[in-house]
Amino acid sequence: MDRPIRVLVAKPGLDGHDRGAKVISRALRDAGMEVIYTGLRQTPEQIVNAAIQEDVDVVALSILSGAHNTLLPKVVELLNAENADDILVVGGGVIPDEDIPFLKEKGIVEVFTPGTPTSTTIEFIKNNLKR
């Protein structure tokens, strides 16, 4: 039997709001995934270290602070530097539509904005795993 999909849910930067991260963590867990939640105010380096230590399949970044164009690409860059480019990186939170193409160009595979059904996120992860 395959092992469950392992997802690291992380809140990069100085963002102090984690309700969305907790909602998505619960939804992914209820869908049978193993979820590791890093908590608030994580640096990109801390997120990447945790992702590698936990041997995750997916890093789900939740951001509301407005620093998404800096912090999310930095996580992808650090994962690539660690030869961990087999990890699927998705983002979510308050991200303006006009910033999404830039984030995708930088390696964020998908961006989920407020109001996205959790089922959409779950299906996307299941259908786009790199393992």
From TrEMBL:
Gene Ontology MF annotations: cobalamin binding; isomerase activity; metal ion binding
The record places domain B12-binding at 4-131
Zinc keyword on record: no
Question: Pfam families of this UniProt entry?
Answer: B12-binding
Asked if the keyword Metal-binding belongs to this entry, the reply reads yes
Swiss-Prot/TrEMBL keywords: Cobalamin, Cobalt, Isomerase, Metal-binding
Gene3D superfamilies cross-referenced by the UniProt entry: Cobalamin-binding domain
Cofactors that this protein relies on:
adenosylcob(III)alamin
Top-level taxon of the source organism: Bacteria
Q: Which InterPro entries match?
A: Acid_CoA_mut_C (IPR006159), Cobalamin-bd (IPR006158), Cobalamin-bd_sf (IPR036724)
PANTHER family named among the record's database cross-references: METHYLMALONYL-COA MUTASE, LARGE SUBUNIT, METHYLMALONYL-COA MUTASE, MITOCHONDRIAL-RELATED
Q: What is this protein called?
A: Methylmalonyl-CoA mutase
What is the scientific name of the source organism?
A: Anaeromicrobium sediminis
Instruction: Read off the lineage from the record.
Output: Bacteria, Bacillati, Bacillota, Clostridia, Peptostreptococcales
